[in-house]
Structures are given as structure tokens and as C-alpha cells.
């Protein structure tokens, strides 16, 4: 008796051909480089530093548990994305996934929201990074210096991105090292050698609830986790530059969530336990506590070293964001779905990067930075919209994936959850709806614009996107495949020599 032949593995180029594309990029990105790209985009150092004081003021030390809650929810989302990218290892991430799972119009709106969310995220990260750069170089932190340092970070990242995937991967790995030193290394040092609080403090509300319920205060601090856990999808944005992407990218996404979550816990927990006057931070008297904690625990020289690490992490984060945004624009343009698509879809001969898309991913954030320079109050709404916009785009893919499963889709990539796929998909969607409700809930300051600014920003983006979609009809200008998840799954199985199931009738 002879054993049945094992299904043949598809090469990267052959897999792309089944999807309707040809290999046009250098596949020089390894699993670890791909993980580094996603991790530096997620950037726990940036997230923790930006929201540490706010989280403690609103929710007290127990707000650290949002890192665990959101990390678990986004892990479910990353598993859904893993199955999708394993079947569709193509550039662009959110856009091609939504297109192949649902259709052209649906994908256009998902990409429109996601593009703007990414672009304003680039601006916000560069703006926050400028403060670290000013401190490092001993420059007075004014509106003018913030603008020039922000533009400098954007241009340096653009120059590195122009050199090609190899340098992108190298700098991403350097950024990964900086992040790990800055969050895990420093966090462990603070926990072990500089602890001034007991571990029980993470169950002590320290009176932030006032006369009301702590549940309200705890939910108000949710942004401490929600702001941290996106960026893992960037691993899929550069799929055509990764070796064996159908296998490696799902692993890189899961690693990004797990390592990012552990890093954030060490960092946030370390700062809380090492704070000399925690009550002053919780009460809001110390609005920027991390520099003081560093100065008190590391000394002037140690604090300076940390600033070098922080600036490196911020630069790497901007670099990864630009790379991901440019690949999304390229993917959008390659299918003829955006104005100037021929120009945006060009790939350079030497470095094999979408240079024109990279220019847009640098120029538009630079223009927004100028607007922030003219009106500093714009930075908060820019950042707030970015978070909700990202989550909306994510859940559009999760919903489209669940819809296809109900129609009979069984993911055909090397990474699959099997019978658990639909359970994980439903749980990921439920988590996503919960997260979006938390993000979209209006504030209670009494100022209408301040309280509703996140929904106002999302409303403007959705309204302009729908207007362009129905007036210009970009979906009619593209004949690229759409809504073909079931068909592609069967073709992939056929190419591998696996049994092909009979098509499921859909009413």
C-alpha cells in the first residue's frame, strides 16, 4: 500500500498568480524583520508615555488592567487577520482583505477610513516624538521647534524608506531593540530596584471615583489599552516583500500582540511602582510624571540615555507607519480605485519601493503638522480620530470575514484556525463593537465640540468618502477581483492537489 501524496506547497510567486498579481517586489523581509515592523508601529513605548498620566488620573492604578483586556481582544482580531492574510498575502492589508472578502464599494470605504487614520497617526507620533527630540538636544520646546522637529522626523523616515526594504527592516530591528530596552528593560529595572509602591496598589482606586461608581472611572480609562494595540496589521501591509508571507505574517502579528502586551505591562507597572509621589499623579497635580520618575531613578545621565532610546523608538514608529501607509496607497492605486492611481502605483526600479505613495505618506502628515503649528488645539482631535478610525477599519474586515464564513468560506492559507475559526471571528467582532462604543462615547465636559470631536471627525471622513464614492464611482474604474474568498480558497486547494469541495449554494 502506498501513502497518499502530501499536498504541494505553493511558492510565493505561484500564490500571487492565483490571486491575479505578479511578483514585483524584493522579498527580503524575514519573520523577525516583519515582526519588528509591526512592533515598532504598535510601539508600547509611545503608547505608555503618551497616556500614562491620563490613565492614572482617570482610572487610577487599576487602569493597567486595560492592557490585559484590550490585548486579549486584539489577539482575537489578529487571529482573524492571520487567516485572511494567509489566503491573501498581498500588499495593502485592510483594503485588499475587505475587497476580496466583500466587494469594491465596501473595501473603498474601509480603505478611505483607514488611510486617513494612518496619516493622522503619523502626524501625531511625529508630534509627540518632537518633544523627546527637543529634550535630547537641549532645545526649547516651542511651537516653532515642535514644527521643525516634527518635519525632521518625517523627512528622515522618508529618506530611509526610499532606500528600500532592506534598510526598512534594519531600522525596524534597531527600533525593536530600542523599544525592548526602553519598555521591558527599564520596566524590570524599576520593578526590581526602584520600587516604592506595593503590588497591591494595582487594586487601589486611590479615590479617583469620587462620590460616584468606580466602574464609570474604570471605563473612562479604557484608552490606556485601546491606544496601544494597533499596528500589528502593518505586518500584512508589506506582504509582497516578505519571504513565505502566508506562513510568517500571521505569526508576526500574534508575536506583535503578545510581546507588545508584556512590554506595556512592564513599562506601565514599572512607572507606577517607582513613582515617588503616586498620589500627585493620580490627583492630576503632576501632569507629566515620567521625566521626573526617570530623573529620580536613573539620574541625569541615565535619563539622557533613555531619551536617545525614546527618539530612536519614535523615529522607527514613524518609519513603520509611513511604510504601511504607502503600501496601502499603492494597493489602492494598483486596482485603479483612487485619483492619480497610475502615479501612485509606480514602483522604483532599483529599491523596489512605491516611492510616490511614500511621498504622499510624508507630505500629507507634514501639512497636518503645519495646521497643528497654526492651532495647537488640533493635536488632540487628530489623535482621537486616529484611534477610532483604525478600530472601525479593523472591524469592517472582521465583519466581512464572518459574512464569508456564513456563506461557506473555509480559509485556504497555510495558517488556519480550523473549526475554531468562526468562534474566534464572532468573539473578535463582539470585542470590536465593545471597543468602538468605548471610543465613541461622548465626554462629559459640557463643551459640545470637545465632547463629540471623535464622532465629528469620523463623520466628516465617512461623509466625504461616501460623497466621492457615489459621485466619482471609483469602484467602476477597477476590474480587479472582489468578493472571491470562496472561489480563491478552492483554487488554492486545487493548486496544492487537495480535494475540492462542492460549491455551497448561497441564497
From TrEMBL:
It is a multi-pass membrane protein. This is Amino acid/polyamine/organocation transporter (APC superfamily). GO terms for molecular function: transmembrane transporter activity. PANTHER family: AMINO-ACID PERMEASE BAT1, OS04G0435100 PROTEIN. InterPro entries: AA/rel_permease1. GO terms for cellular component: membrane. Keywords: Membrane, Transmembrane, Transmembrane helix, Transport. It comes from the Bacteria. The lineage of its organism: Bacteria, Bacillati, Actinomycetota, Actinomycetes, Micrococcales. The keyword Mitochondrion does not apply. It is found in: Membrane. The chain crosses the membrane at residues 31-52, 64-85, 106-126, 146-164, 171-192, 212-232, 252-274, 305-332, 353-374, 380-402, 422-440, 452-471. Pfam families: AA_permease_2 (PF13520). The keyword Repeat does not apply. Gene3D superfamilies: Amino acid/polyamine transporter I (1.20.1740.10).
Amino acid at each position: 500500500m502506498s501513502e497518499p501524496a502530501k499536498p504541494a506547497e505553493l511558492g510565493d510567486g505561484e500564490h500571487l498568480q492565483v490571486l491575479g498579481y505578479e511578483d514585483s517586489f524584493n522579498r527580503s523581509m524575514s519573520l523577525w524583520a516583519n515582526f519588528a515592523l509591526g512592533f515598532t508601529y504598535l510601539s508600547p513605548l509611545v503608547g505608555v508615555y503618551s497616556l500614562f498620566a491620563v490613565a492614572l488620573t482617570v482610572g487610577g492604578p487599576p487602569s493597567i488592567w486595560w492592557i490585559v483586556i484590550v490585548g486579549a481582544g486584539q489577539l482575537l482580531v489578529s487571529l482573524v487577520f492571520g487567516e485572511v492574510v494567509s489566503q491573501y498575502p498581498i500588499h495593502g492589508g485592510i483594503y485588499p482583505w475587505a475587497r476580496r472578502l466583500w466587494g469594491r464599494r465596501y473595501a473603498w470605504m474601509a480603505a478611505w477610513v483607514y488611510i486617513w487614520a494612518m496619516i493622522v497617526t503619523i502626524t501625531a507620533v511625529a508630534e509627540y516624538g518632537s518633544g523627546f527630540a527637543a529634550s535630547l538636544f537641549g532645545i526649547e520646546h516651542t511651537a516653532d521647534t515642535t514644527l521643525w522637529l516634527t518635519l525632521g522626523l518625517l523627512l528622515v523616515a522618508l529618506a530611509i524608506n526610499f532606500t528600500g526594504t532592506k534598510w526598512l527592516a534594519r531600522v525596524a530591528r534597531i527600533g525593536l531593540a530600542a523599544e525592548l530596552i526602553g519598555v521591558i528593560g527599564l520596566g524590570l529595572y524599576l520593578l526590581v530596584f526602584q520600587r516604592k509602591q506595593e503590588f497591591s496598589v494595582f487594586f487601589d482606586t486611590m479615590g479617583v471615583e469620587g462620590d460616584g461608581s468606580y466602574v464609570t472611572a474604570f471605563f473612562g480609562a479604557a484608552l490606556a489599552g485601546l491606544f496601544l494595540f494597533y499596528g500589528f496589521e502593518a505586518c500584512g501591509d508589506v506582504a509582497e516583500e516578505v519571504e513565505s508571507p502566508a506562513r510568517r505574517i500571521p505569526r508576526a502579528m500574534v508575536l506583535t500582540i503578545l510581546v507588545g502586551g508584556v512590554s506595556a505591562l512592564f513599562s506601565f507597572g514599572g512607572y507606577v511602582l517607582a513613582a515617588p509621589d503616586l498620589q500627585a499623579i493620580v490627583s492630576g497635580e503632576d501632569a507629566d510624571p515620567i521625566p521626573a520618575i526617570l530623573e529620580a531613578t536613573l539620574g541625569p545621565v541615565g535619563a539622557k540615555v533613555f531619551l536617545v532610546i525614546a527618539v530612536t523608538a519614535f523615529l522607527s514608529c514613524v518609519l513603520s507607519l509611513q511604510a504601511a501607509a504607502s503600501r496601502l496607497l499603492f494597493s489602492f492605486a494598483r486596482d485603479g480605485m483612487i485619483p492619480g492611481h497610475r502615479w501612485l502605483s509606480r514602483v522604483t526600479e532599483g529599491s523596489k519601493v512605491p516611492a510616490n505613495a511614500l511621498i504622499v505618506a510624508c507630505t500629507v502628515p507634514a501639512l497636518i503638522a503645519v495646521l497643528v503649528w497654526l492651532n495647537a488645539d488640533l493635536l488632540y482631535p487628530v489623535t482621537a480620530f486616529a484611534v477610532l478610525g483604525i478600530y472601525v477599519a479593523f472591524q469592517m474586515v472582521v465583519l466581512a470575514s464572518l459574512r464569508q464564513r456564513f456563506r461557506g468560506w473555509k480559509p485556504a492559507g497555510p495558517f488556519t484556525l480550523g473549526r475554531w475559526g468562526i468562534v474566534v471571528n464572532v468573539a473578535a467582532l463582539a470585542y470590536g463593537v465593545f471597543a468602538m462604543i468605548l471610543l465613541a462615547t461622548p465626554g462629559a465636559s459640557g463643551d459640545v465640540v470637545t465632547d463629540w470631536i471623535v464622532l465629528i471627525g469620523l463623520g466628516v471622513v465617512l461623509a466625504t468618502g461616501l460623497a466621492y464614492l457615489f459621485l466619482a464611482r471609483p469602484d467602476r474604474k477597477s476590474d480587479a477581483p472582489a468578493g472571491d474568498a470562496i472561489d480563491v480558497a478552492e483554487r488554492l486547494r486545487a493548486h496544492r492537489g487537495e480535494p475540492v469541495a462542492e460549491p455551497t449554494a448561497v441564497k
